[in-house]
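Quick log. Single chain, no ligands specified.
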Amino acid sequence: MTSILALASLLVLTSCSNKNEEPAPSSNQGNNSNTKPTIGIGAAQQHAYRVAPSNGIITTDAVTTQASGSVLLSVIARGTWSLTPDAPTDNHNNAFILVESAHSYQEWPDSKSALYVKTGAAGGTNHTFSVSFGKVGSEDTDGDEVSISMVEVKGATKIQMSSFAEKILPGGSTMLTSEPVTTTGPAVLVAWWWGTAGIPPVGQNHTAIPGNGFTLIPEATRTVRLNSNGYIQFAAAYKIVDGAGTYAASWTTTENAQLYLVAVE
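-> predicted structure:
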C-alpha cells in the first residue's frame, strides 16, 4: 500500500498460516469431480487516497466468468477499514465469505486487507465486482484509498488451505516468500503481493515479479503509479499443481508486502 495514509516507510514482521475449509457446493454446483482445477479470469480496480468522490463504490471492468460452479477469490484492502468494513459484491448476487479475518498493516493498524471466497459461484457475461470506500476527511474530495483484486478458479469446489504473512525484505535481499500451503491433490495456487512502499516517481512501476513457477495475472494486478496522494498497489499470480504437496510463493520485489497464498481444489 503506497503510504497507506501517504506515509512512505514500513517496519513490520508478522507471519501466520491458516487453514480454511469451506463446505463443498451441492452436487448440482461445480464441475465433475474428475476435472482438474484451472485458472479462470482476473479483474481489479483501485481508488486513490483523498480523491473525489468522498465516498462510494469502485467496480471492475466487466469480464466473462463460468456460468456456474467456479470458486471466486477476492482480496480487498482499505486505508481506513472501519469506514466500510463490508465484503465485496458482484452483479450476479454471489455472497462472498471472509476467510479468517481482516489483516491490519503493522505500521498502520487502521488499514487492513482481507481475503474473501465464494464457492459454487454464479457467473456469465458482463460480470463485475465492486467494493465500497468511505470518507477520510471533511472535504468532498476526501475519499479513502481502496483496491480490489479478483481471481476465478474453474473446476474446483473449495479452499483447501490458505496462508497469510506480512514480511519485510531481509537486508540486501529482493525476495519475499509466503507462508506455505498444503494440497491434497490437483489444485490451483493463487498468490497475492500487497506492497507497502512509498510512491515511485511518475512513469515507474512497483516491482512484484512472481517466482517458484507462478505466473502473473495481469488483469488482477495493479502496480502502476496511480496517484501522488497514495493508493494500494497489488499483484496476483497463479500456479497449477498436479498432486498433493506443500508449496510457497516467492516474489522478487523492492518493498515489504503482505502476502497471501490460497490452495483451491
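The chain has one helix and 20 strands.
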